[in-house]
Amino acid sequence: MNISMASVGTSNLGILPEVMGFPHQELSVVMIKKLNLARKQLLRQNITFSCNRKTGITRAIAPEATKVTGPTSSSVPLANYVPVYLMLPLDVISIDNVFRDQGKCEKQFKELREAGVDGIMLDIWWGIVEANGPGLYDWSAYRSLFQLVQKIGLKIQAIMSFHQCGGNIGDDVFIPIPKWVLAIGENNRDIFYTNRTGTRNKECLSLAVDNQPLFEGRTAIQIYSDYMRSFRENMSDFLEAGSIVDIEVGLGPAGELRYPSYTQSQGWKFPGIGEFQCYDKYMRTDFKEAATKAGHSEWDLPDDAGTYNNVPAETGFFGPNGTYLTEKGKFFLTWYSSKLLLHGDQILDEANKAFLGCKVNLSAKATGIHWWYKDASHAAELTAGFYNLDNRDGYRPIARMLSRHYGTFNFTCLEMRNSEHPAYAKSGPQELVQQVLSVGWKENIDVAGENALSRYDGYAYNQILLNARPNGINKNGSPKLKMARLTYLRLSEKLLQSRNFRTFKTFVKKMHADLDYCPEYDKPAPLGRSKGEISMDELLEATQRTKPFPWDEQTDARIGSLLAEYWDRLLNKFFQSN
């Protein structure tokens, strides 16, 4: 068995020796010894990689970087196709509203088109477009970008980004919300989310001011509505041409429907439980009125829920037999999570009116808070506004609310596996994704997804492929379960590096079920008017926990082979012992 150093530097799953804790400079002597031990282990396991029928000699075959398995395009119906979009860099439009590096972008977009990518996603930053004053919109840089995207033949997912860029995981750019809004906040700090110690979060406006006319006579909801209507008016040619196919509506920090409970700029570190964000004067008043109406005027907001980096057991609220299990705790959590539902419902209703009749998908994103998912308290989810427990579904009410607006439920952390996280964090990304996608399908809405962190390895890609079609490809028709589309984070120089991009192109092909790129696939119907309002009682009926749909153990459209994964695990075992 002759193995060259070139063939073992990385496997076709993309795992580098450094990732395994093994620096390159030590490869020359130690690695050869390790590989010889690995070779003996493989032979002892009696694994047959390929067999010469005449001699019966077993030999190992070095895996190709883009080797794939799965059905061919001739045997698979188009219904198995999952479109793939690529998120653009956060600052593709600069803070001073300029589309820079157009030549570089054109080259990259052509590479994406040749790779079979369906389109791109990008943030349409409120802090850039409406920077010069209330109602003063400048869409020129985004129009230039859209023209280039349209010329290359890619589709567009546009995010109405009413939040700050910066302060969250993966943010390497700072774009604040408009300065004229921040100026209003200097005189009224309660327009921002606030934790128990009074720290304000200027990443976005608090949902508490959704209907408060504090912004030159407008409410926050009116601001969002005017912005989206202006976008439609100024981008009507791209909408009519079918270039813009998806409008994702920003509903909170990082554009997600949640409270900013775990902000790095305020000191949060993984896997801290985060903090409730409801201590501004408007939220305090609202809670006191709700508690009084319920006959408990003595109740106040939690004072025993700890701080950002506590673990559940260190707090009175989330610990064993904690406050969250009491009548008071349940009332608070229902109120806290319901405010988030109403916030999302109001803004999506305005978005539906703004884009009524346009051939676009309307979507909203919730984040995958997977740490402490396997703790009884689900503490990190609760502080973010997802009242999700082992016996209570915190996500199906969101899906039901979205169904009223013909919305798509976009979810994150599709690439993650439980084994990739420390045991003490009690993470459950696989079960979390399974739960959330299932409730979307049960509410008869489209579900879409993203990876949370940039990954270039086969393990991540295969996990995404599994979540995209949990029961595999159906050669005779539509798959039992299938995501509507995927957005990959994000376009970068590292992704476009030769090896990474070869693997990514294979991933795109597998998302397409080995079918050729189909520009006609993702063509939405005209957006209809939102259905009638859903009462809070009806939304809360959806909290009854049901079993998620079953998932296969692994995707049937995997990148690489079982041999490659075995090889990686074996090498990892030996390297970690060094």
From TrEMBL:
<feature type="binding site">
    <location>
        <begin position="451"/>
        <end position="452"/>
    </location>
    <ligand>
        <name>substrate</name>
    </ligand>
</feature>
<dbReference type="InterPro" id="IPR001371">
    <property type="entry name" value="Glyco_hydro_14B_pln"/>
</dbReference>
<dbReference type="GO" id="GO:0000272">
    <property type="term" value="P:polysaccharide catabolic process"/>
</dbReference>
<feature type="binding site">
    <location>
        <position position="163"/>
    </location>
    <ligand>
        <name>substrate</name>
    </ligand>
</feature>
<comment type="similarity">
    <text>Belongs to the glycosyl hydrolase 14 family.</text>
</comment>
<dbReference type="GO" id="GO:0016161">
    <property type="term" value="F:beta-amylase activity"/>
</dbReference>
<keyword id="KW-0378">Hydrolase</keyword>
<feature type="binding site">
    <location>
        <position position="123"/>
    </location>
    <ligand>
        <name>substrate</name>
    </ligand>
</feature>
<keyword id="KW-0119">Carbohydrate metabolism</keyword>
<keyword id="KW-0326">Glycosidase</keyword>
<feature type="binding site">
    <location>
        <position position="490"/>
    </location>
    <ligand>
        <name>substrate</name>
    </ligand>
</feature>
<dbReference type="InterPro" id="IPR001554">
    <property type="entry name" value="Glyco_hydro_14"/>
</dbReference>
<feature type="binding site">
    <location>
        <position position="370"/>
    </location>
    <ligand>
        <name>substrate</name>
    </ligand>
</feature>
<feature type="binding site">
    <location>
        <position position="171"/>
    </location>
    <ligand>
        <name>substrate</name>
    </ligand>
</feature>
<protein>
    <recommendedName>
        <fullName>Beta-amylase</fullName>
        <ecNumber>3.2.1.2</ecNumber>
    </recommendedName>
</protein>
<feature type="active site" description="Proton donor">
    <location>
        <position position="256"/>
    </location>
</feature>
<dbReference type="InterPro" id="IPR018238">
    <property type="entry name" value="Glyco_hydro_14_CS"/>
</dbReference>
<dbReference type="InterPro" id="IPR017853">
    <property type="entry name" value="GH"/>
</dbReference>
<keyword id="KW-0624">Polysaccharide degradation</keyword>
<feature type="active site" description="Proton acceptor">
    <location>
        <position position="450"/>
    </location>
</feature>
<dbReference type="Pfam" id="PF01373">
    <property type="entry name" value="Glyco_hydro_14"/>
</dbReference>
<feature type="binding site">
    <location>
        <position position="365"/>
    </location>
    <ligand>
        <name>substrate</name>
    </ligand>
</feature>
<feature type="binding site">
    <location>
        <position position="412"/>
    </location>
    <ligand>
        <name>substrate</name>
    </ligand>
</feature>
